[in-house]
Write a structure and sequence with these properties.
Two copies of one chain form a homodimer.
Chain A lengths: L2 E5 L4 H12 L4 E8 L7 H12 L3 E6 L35 H16 L3 E3 L15 H13 L12 E3 L7 H11 L21 H13 L5 H5 L2
Parallel strand pairs in A: 1-2, 1-4, 2-3, 4-5
Chain lengths: 227, 227
């Protein structure tokens, strides 16, 4: 069975990436989910549910200290998450420094240990909220670094591929694709505030709502969580 | 005051790197030490002692799960650390997958959060024990990835520099330099087995003994720890 590692937060992008990896023939899936001090640790429940729905071989929950430097409203208890603004051109306060570099390097360690040559990450530079580590230049540079810094990429001559299939896709197109792949998006979680129900007003809720509207798909996450 | 981050394990290389950063004018030093399941967690005491001797601004002890994949004799309790062999041409069992990629990406996160543009790492590809993530190709690729994946390297246009001053230095030359810089090597720790006293027979002890012999410097670590 072909093996792949998927970075799985439990949101729309990573969930779609997990389903896509399966559709692309990777039947032994290893999901990595990171706890990094994010306020919406609620997304971990979604990651669990999605991993179970797909039937992954392994689901690793990995605790990381990147929230500790206290520079993001997403991880700092003393800062609140601002209401969203999709017209904003500056870097949002929810930016977590070098998060995807850390996530991908941990994935590289797992890949090198388990001899898995394929890593999926659901980033998009179209709707990327100003996060610089969602751009193609970063993904390609990181792939190169991974191959220089692992046995797989060097002495074993089995290069690691970092798949970022949504880099140039809008979130709406991604959702259309996901629906075809059988994704149940009501299982996923996007809201940064991480209360029992999505707030509907943070950046992540706004992006999600816009994408579902554009895709013409109904989002039933609120209904699923209304108990 | 010029600021730098130094990856500090408490061994010979990272200790010399810390002193060199100071000598090169970086007077606000931030040391990062990683716990990754290594058996010689004893080195943490050395990192503390060295950080105190230099007078760092901050010393972060960071817990990472890379030992969890269980593929290194350095982290797996069910495997013993073999006696050393400096003639060995294969990758040693103590290799920890993609360790330096993980360490440097965490350093990048810290750098991006604190706006620190200089990172020191004490790797050498001369005496590198077959660890592929100690080679210049990896360091340069990782530096590129860090600059593509951080605000410092992109929108802030303040590129991060990864200093690896010992890449092409033998450990003996490094020790000669360290002695000039005032390093007290009896504070440092190299032994992989991590008992009260250095074993003297693992790869790391053999490399250390050879380097001190070549440098003509007496190693007093055993005396310091013999209590």
């Amino acid at each position: 069975m072909k093996k792949a590692i998927v970075l799985l937060s439990g949101g729309v992008d990573s969930t779609t990436a997990l389903y896509l990896a399966y559709a692309e023939g990777f039947r032994e899936l290893h999901a990595l989910t990171f706890l990094y001090g994010q306020k919406h640790v609620r997304e971990l429940l979604s990651a669990r549910a999605v991993a179970r729905a797909v039937g992954v071989r392994a689901h690793e929950i990995i605790d990381l200290p990147v929230g500790r430097w206290k520079s993001s409203s997403l991880t700092d208890a003393n800062r609140s998450i601002a209401d969203g603004d999709l017209q904003r051109k500056t870097i949002p306060a929810t930016y977590v420094p070098a998060r995807n570099a850390v996530f991908l390097s941990i994935a590289a360690s797992y890949a090198d240990a388990k001899e898995i040559e394929d890593i999926y990450i659901g980033v998009s530079q179209v709707d990327y909220s100003g996060y610089v580590d969602c751009r193609e230049e970063f993904i390609r540079a990181m792939e190169k670094a991974i191959n220089e810094g692992t046995l797989l990429g060097t002495v074993k001559e089995r290069p690691v591929r970092v798949h970022a299939p949504f880099l140039h896709l809008t979130k709406a197109d991604e959702i259309r694709l996901g629906v075809k792949l059988g994704v149940d998006y009501s299982l996923t979680w996007s809201c940064y505030r991480g209360d029992n129900l999505p707030c509907g007003t943070c950046d992540s809720c706004l992006l999600r709502a816009k994408a579902f509207r554009e895709a013409g798909v109904e989002d039933k996450t609120r209904e699923r969580n209304a108990y």
